[in-house]
């Protein structure tokens, strides 16, 4: 009967001990005050347990004699205190282990949440950088085209008007396009740009395509080919025409530009090739705004390895 009463008491106080341990874990920097708090709780449990023993002993052992106080005093001993202390410590250890497990789980959850936030911020940063690069490219392309229109106005008013109309259509499409589009759509934007160039260059510009069917759905930065093709026109079309100095002559040798898209495993390779005179030996070989912008956009979307360009 006394043992049953003791275990019932422990069943009642165990949840309280676990909550107290979770609230006041015995660790630095408040180790001593918290140990004192737990010692006080253990002493209270000891008193309650001995009081229950002293109260129930006449029913459990009719031969027992003495008053309640005498029975309580006879039961108060170091072994009784040690027994309560051991059981209390075991309950504390279990509660501490469960608390540590919960803390570890919470730490993992926080780490995953922080990683998700970091990835989200990194994605937002990359998207912002891509948008900034795209906005940088649009004025560069616009200024070059306006310069071409200005040069064309001197000898072909009708052609300059057509170029203005094509430029408006291209700008509307480019501004509406997201930062990355399928290669099929990118080729459509490029063809709009080439229509503008054909007005200026006429038969002096010959562009051919060799695009693998599997490459057409691959997403690429919008307007990624335009600065490369514009660069090829500068070096692939006869200089007297590409430099906007004069209208194309009928017997002018065409400038051939070939655009190739191939797939190797999971990688897309884009090639813009021309058969022009190339870069002069004494020319500044640093990349201009268009090529540098293209490299930066590729690196931002796919990593530095994707921005490996050979010019």
Q: Explain this structure to me?
A:
- The chain folds into 2 domains: 2-112, no CATH class; 153-307, Histidine kinase-like ATPase, C-terminal domain (Heat Shock Protein 90, 2-Layer Sandwich), CATH 3.30.565.10.
- α1 packs antiparallel against α2 and α1 runs parallel beside α4 (78-152).
- The protein has 311 residues and is mainly alpha-helical.
- Strands 2-4-5 form a 3-stranded mixed β-sheet, covered by helices on one side. A two-stranded antiparallel ribbon has the order 1-3.
- Helices cover 65% and strands 10% of the residues.
- It has helices spanning 2-23, 31-60, 68-75, 78-152, 157-176, 183-201, 226-236, 239-242, 289-302, and strands spanning 180-182, 205-211, 219-221, 255-264, 267-274.
- β4 and β5 (267-274) form a beta hairpin.
- It is built from 9 helices and 5 strands, in the order αααααβαββααββα.
List keywords for this structure.
single chain, 311 residues, mainly alpha, Heat Shock Protein 90, two-stranded antiparallel sheet, rod-shaped
Task: Tell me what portion of residues adopts beta-strand conformation.
Answer: 5-15%
Segments where pLDDT lies below 50 for 5+ residues? 243-252
CATH hierarchy, class of the largest domain: Alpha Beta
Order of helices and strands: HHHHHEHEEHHEEH
Count of strand segments: 5
Helix content: 55-70%
Give the structural class: mainly alpha
Q: Give the total of domains.
A: 2
| Main β sheet profile | 3 strands, mixed
- Compute the CA-based radius of gyration: 41 Å
Give the overall silhouette.
rod-shaped
Distance between the termini: 94 Å
Under the CATH scheme, the architecture of the largest domain is 2-Layer Sandwich
Number of helices: 9
